[in-house]
């Protein structure tokens, strides 16, 4: 998760410490993204997905965004990267090639390993927030 800074006493650095201080890096804020970001249509008539942000790490990039499915054609998706997803609204019926099936609702968290083939369907709609180990737009 990174390092934490605290107000605990630390040993002062030695006079021979010549390392340059790291430049401060600012975070990015996407206000109201869950309600204001509208992912584009990616498949069928009812599957929408869009990246909100992607890291600048070219060696191990990560992308995050929203996936929305509306009632209609099931989406069958084969993952070419690892992904985590949290259901933030609505519901999905999620299954895989092993026969595992879950009725997913708000608050449920999933890990989809690279190589898994997942079927998403819904009787209403579902909205998930995802973080995938991939480049921007590589879904």
Automatic annotation (TrEMBL):
A Pfam family reported for this protein in Swiss-Prot or TrEMBL: EutQ
InterPro entries noted in UniProt: EutQ, RmlC-like_jellyroll, RmlC_Cupin_sf
UniProt region (Disordered), positions on chain: 1-22
Lineage, uppermost ranks: Eukaryota, Fungi, Dikarya, Ascomycota, Pezizomycotina
Signal peptide from the UniProt entry: none
Protein name, per record: Ethanolamine utilization protein
SUPFAM superfamilies: RmlC-like cupins (SSF51182)
């Amino acid at each position: 998760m990174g390092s934490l800074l605290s107000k605990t006493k630390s040993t002062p650095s030695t006079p021979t410490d010549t390392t340059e201080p790291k430049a401060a890096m600012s975070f990015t804020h996407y206000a109201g993204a869950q309600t204001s970001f509208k992912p584009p249509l990616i498949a069928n008539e009812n599957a929408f997905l869009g990246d909100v942000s992607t890291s600048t790490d070219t060696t191990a990039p990560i992308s995050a965004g929203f996936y929305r499915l509306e009632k209609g054609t099931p989406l069958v998706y084969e993952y070419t990267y690892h992904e985590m997803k949290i259901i933030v609204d609505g519901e999905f019926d999620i299954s895989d090639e092993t026969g595992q099936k879950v009725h997913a609702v708000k608050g449920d968290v999933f890990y989809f390993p690279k190589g898994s083939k997942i079927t998403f369907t819904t009787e209403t709609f579902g909205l998930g927030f995802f973080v995938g180990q991939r480049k921007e737009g590589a879904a």
